[in-house]
Amino acid sequence: MKRFTYDDIMAMVKEDRLHFINAVPGFKSANLIGTKDLNNCYNLAVFSSVIHLGSHPPYLGFVTRPTTVPRHTLDNILNTAYYTINHIHKDFYPSAHQTSAKYERGESEFDKVGLTPEPMSSIAVPYVQEASVKIGMEYVERHHITANDTLLVVGRIIEILIQESIIQDDHAIDLDKAGTVAISGIEGYHQTHLLDQLGYAQPGDPIPEPKQKGNE
Amino acid sequence: MKRFTYDDIMAMVKEDRLHFINAVPGFKSANLIGTKDLNNCYNLAVFSSVIHLGSHPPYLGFVTRPTTVPRHTLDNILNTAYYTINHIHKDFYPSAHQTSAKYERGESEFDKVGLTPEPMSSIAVPYVQEASVKIGMEYVERHHITANDTLLVVGRIIEILIQESIIQDDHAIDLDKAGTVAISGIEGYHQTHLLDQLGYAQPGDPIPEPKQKGNE
Description:
The structure is a homodimer. By secondary structure, chain A is an alpha+beta fold. Chain A has six helices and 13 strands. In chain A, a hairpin with a 3-residue loop joins strand 12 (about 180-185) and strand 13 (about 190-195). The first copy, chain A, is globular, with a radius of gyration of 19 Å. Chains A and B meet through strand 1, helix 1, helix 2, strand 2 and strand 5 of A and strand 1, helix 1, helix 2, strand 2 and strand 5 of B. Strand 13 (about 190-195) of chain A pairs antiparallel with strand 13 (about 190-195) of chain B.
């Protein structure tokens, strides 16, 4: 094993460090956050930091920097209180990634990258029409992570729009079938393949053999 | 598309809601957090909420509930200030999942699930010997998410131990080659396949066609 100390990491070339440290937590969710500014211009931005915070009531979080791009998303959420979270599909991940380019305020990433805004009467901000899982969110609170000046933005799920065929009998979502991708580092997009769906673990349970792709 | 409102979600059977809402953010990182209690008993717990917070300095976060299992992890971190984050590999994900069983305080999950604690002189808590990516962490701060009584625990990376063969030339980590799995919902374990590694996006860049598994 190669060992990198804190000092080794801090001494890395910036680009190398970004690639390396963004990959060390493992796979990340791949979502587009849709918002609207006060002039009704639609904004769309790729985020790999959307996380589950709770199910009852249903809360999701995401991390952003208050002082750097994509600040449009944060400003819009604080101004309007609403946003949408849309799964990035393997058929449009290059368009999703292109939303990370620094477009000017007033330019809509929907137009620039060729994705379709889908307004709904139930929420004042646009969904991504092409997405197979779309989540309507209401802003709840934010937490300032003082250690490195980032923000955790917390929101409540107000509705979920989803292709019915990808909901399993136990209400788990078949994310392989959904075409949802996973992100590694800052620019790796991965397709997935379910190895196994395990059950609720209790002490004394026998531990099954790991399944391997190709020998199921 | 099927629509679930907030009220529909709140009215679901608890198990269904857990499966559903845990899957809506998309794929999650799959890690084992290693800690030590004040009696030097090693603890190991599966977490799907480890996220990147910053690269310079390098910070990671994870989410836990202060009042429910796996509280041993949180107690130990607050008592000792150190913990390890270890990628879950496709060869041992069933053992990793079994750490979610409610073992008694004083029972080490390492023993119960058959993973090997790897003490190092550089940090006072154990790594998982079988992991191909291991991260040594020092506790920094925590944030109480009042909306649903969860905690975001923030830590600083003090060292990274990693198989040298999975580090790419640009210092991104080849997570497919690492054997790192992704989690969906509360019990789905997925193997991955890189579709594409995109570059830094700038306005005006042409948007490439999406690559598909099988026709590369």
